[in-house]
Amino acid sequence: MQKVVLKISGMTCSACSNGLEKYLNKQEGIISATVNLVMATAQIEYDETKVDRKMLDTFVKKAGFKSLGEYDGKEEENNYKRNKILFVVFGVLAVILLYISMGHMIGLPIFELLDMSKNPINYAVTLFILTIAFLAYGFDIIKNGFKNLIHKDPNMDTLVAIGVLSSFLYSTYSMIMIIRGDNSYVHELYFESSAIVIFFIKLGRYLDGISKDKTKEAIKKLVQITPSKAIVKVDGKEKEVTIDEIKKGDTVVSHAGDRISVDGKITRGKAHLDESFLTGESKPASKKEGDKVIAGSINYDGYIEYEAEKIGRDSTISQIVKLVVEATNTKAPIAKVADKVSGYFVPIVILIAIISFIAYLLLGFGVGEALTTFVTILVVACPCALGLATPLAIVVSEGKCAKNGILVKKSEILENAEKINTIVFDKTGTLTYGKLKISEILNYSSNLNEEELLRITGSIEARSTHPIAKAFSDYLKEHKLGKYNVEDFKNLSGLGITGKVEGKEYKLGNYKILEHFNIEDKNMDKYKQEEKELAKKGNSIIYVVEENKIIALIGVNDLVRENVKDVIKKLNENNIETIMLTGDNKDTAELIAKEIGITKVIADVVPEQKTNTIKDLKKQGKIVMMCGDGINDSPALATADIGVSVNSGTDIAMDSSDVILMKNDLSKILDLILISKKTIRNIKENLFWAFFYNSLMIPIAIGILKPIGISINPMIAGLAMTLSSLTVILNALRLR
Length: 736
Prior knowledge:
Helix content is 49%, strand content 20%.
């Protein structure tokens, strides 16, 4: 049994992905196939004894699409700019077309050359030409509509395609009659119906395409996390090579500031490496000979040589890319309501229209009247209101979310957020700020206030390359404190740093620096006890020594975000289970969890374990939201029913997530759930009005009320369709 993810060309809508998926799953030798429209991929599990890779490409081709080979995360230039230009151009054309065809109805001035009563031929031919342009613009919709009809899987595209073409062909017939001299047909032109329906559907596709490109960009950034070049040692000399030239066993060199090129093992030197993108640990890890290094991590302060062990597809980053792609290839738990309904609604409407056409002919009516009834039924039943019911309410709600600092990227989120019963939080960068800050200051000095103490220590730390130094630099910036001139600065590896400020020597470091300089103090027992208390809170401890006297203890830590305790409390009160899932060590994680009120902690996990944890929770029947901020969280964010990232997180986490909290405020999760509840109620109301409209108008379009003098033609049907859509629009706007 083999599994492969193929890149697919030619998919433009859900009908395409659904059709391809059904076709692939019918083929002998294919165990399962899942097609992802957003990623334009097909994940196929197959029996290699019955099917080979070339046969998979052939299956894709027979279904009407093209396989571009195995997905590797490297995307082609997207068509965003081209689509935007086309949308703007056709938006202008839509306004022109509506002005020409319907401007006279609302008293707008009409050019005499295009006046329907004075120059009916010019009027008809102009609308015909403009509509031809829209048919070309929406050719993919028409093509997919008929393709799904052929595959016996008609959908909304099918109904739109038949309705649009029927209306266009009938209008073309009317135009021909006008050219032949029968001007009465000028009132039988419905070109604008065909064009505007296509335009609004393309609008939805254009907006959908933007979110697709964002998702693809996330994968591209994952691939690019590793540097394109590296330095290897060949015969004792350093040589720059491309990443693809590195082979297993090569000795790779890394200087301070470099990114690690490939996974490997240190053979010489030591350094602090920032692996937070993978592990979630905010404090850079100390690495020495024999320790493993991961591609993409940053060398803060040392020189190391390491042996290349995992390259290409075997690297940790490549495995994360694979996890993200596989996670995005899983199906959403709930399909869109309109798509489900259209599965029954579309074929029924087509059948009703055909039966009505035949019935009119059998009852002795002319072909013209039979065709008018056929087109009227399709136009009046064209499910614009049904199609708008769900997405419009969601668009309005997304705007409401945006005003509240909640960026929702997928329409399904506002359908599903109200059902969430389990929220999994990453620790570093999500529940905490994700960067080291000065958390506590114990000032023993008799002549220095806290601000002056931090100004001195910050000035000395600014000369250091150690990760903790940034906490002091940030403090000086936040409090707008200038730096002192530092003399005789020295870096004592593994101990700390020393330097002179205003003629006095200061020593900053861990407890070992006291032993190194033989510093003794009568209050040493007190200092040691207070050091233990700070350490219990997860702090890294720095002793500050002026000359040979201890004047302060400073705790540096990753602080818990503001109002996190209240958020967790409210979630628990609403019977939503909260879990901490982190790559950080268990002791630190449990310490913070206890502080904020989370009772379940899963620590010391790698990205794959995070993803598996989410999968296990979903298997238990739970609807899971994942909140994270790092690259290590991206597979889990994609796997969860809803992935939420804070805005201070990495680009990868934000692109892999469904929701971004723009103000880094976790209380917005509660707002999201509340908005979701109101949105669902509004969608149900919209669907009722859409169904009520169709239930009322289809019988009238058939002609049931003709005996009492009530009937409609395609023009009135088009107007009725617009009014039904307007009802849904106004109801959705109430969400504001």
